[in-house]
Amino acid sequence: MSAAPVAAAPPTRTPPAPVPRAAGAPTATDPALVRRAVKAAALGNAMEWFDFGVYSYIAVTLGKVFFPSGNPTAQLLSTFGAFAAAFLVRPLGGMVFGPLGDRVGRQKVLAVTMIMMAAGTFAIGLIPSYATIGVWAPVLLLAARLVQGFSTGGEYAGASTFIAEYAPDKRRGFLGSWLEFGTLAGYIGGAGLVTLMTALLSDGDLMSWGWRIPFLIAGPMGIVGLYLRMRLEETPAFAAEVAKAETARPKVPLREMVTGQWRALLLCVGLVLVFNVTDYMLLSYMPSYLTSELEYDETHGLLVVLGVMALMMVVQPFAGALTDRVGRRPVIAAGCAGFLLLSVPAVLLIREGSLLAVALGMGALGMLLVCFTASMPSALPALFPTRVRYGSLSIGFNVSVSLFGGTTPLVVTALIGATGDMMMPAYYMMAAAVVGGVAVWFMTESAGRPLPGSAPAVEGR
Model-level pTM? Predict the structure, then answer.
């Protein structure tokens, strides 16, 4: 619900977050409202990434259900192909939901993306197998994935914008880090459920009906997430933009969101590239890499990834607070340098095969990834001014994710198949680190400073 103009009489009900009374006047944030905003965005993000995570962790089984073939690598490629296809429509979702969020409000759009994501995931759990309906099974799977991808095009940019615009300037890194805490919680939920099913169910039961359970859970989870997001008010920054216009928000041309922000968009693409290539490599691709390429025990492989994500969750808020003290740029730069120098040793440890070696290699990559998960939710929204923040960030974020992040499992699997080189994951992460390092060099430090186009935000009592 949009906030009332500044000149309007105070409402009798509990008001939304305060609007600055004069241009440049600080906004005193309400701690209770900030906590509610962070919880709703993080919990909603957790629910969305639970859905995405389940698909990755159960990819081998899905390949057998939807893409019958005598070649396990071909099955995995087909499954990850459907996974990657969803990312092709993410820019379209960003172009629709991003500008809409700048016009009608962040909260309304985030509610819509929640509904669509839950519906797409729930539908996957209802699709008959290839053995039942033939080629229509992978066609329907692809259609559901496209719905998921389209809705996700407005999710991350909206959630990070929502938290950033609610947070006080000096705590934006800490509060923003809880968004990725929610992502990790969703992944852990997905991985934990798949691990439990793998351990308790026979291969036949998992193939026939067990794989459907995680997807069907999306229905009630989506209802809970929608409830949380519908209870929120609009952000102070968006309310101030509405107050400036004194009427409905003017429509910002899509061209202005792109050509008018070309430098910030290029930085966004570079930062998101290193963030998402390493993210999808570790959290989405590695479980399948351990089982299909290294023939590692499936249950133990998932448990290692689960432990790494739990460790990342513990470190995440502290790393977010660190970005408020030392800045976003040093933390992101440390992550890029770490992936450039340590990717090869980490993958070599993973390839060694023992549980300890795999855990050490995965743990090292996880700690490096925290440099990005703790920084990006606060760094990316600060690249753009308020009036185009949701739209421009949605476009830049989703173009980069679609071209580089979401395609990571497919590209790396194909590269290994073409070259036979099991070190391809390390080389791919190193290349991403170089691109990310260039982007960090040119970005401006945003820690402790007001968001562009917004008044300073201070913590209220």
Answer: 0.84
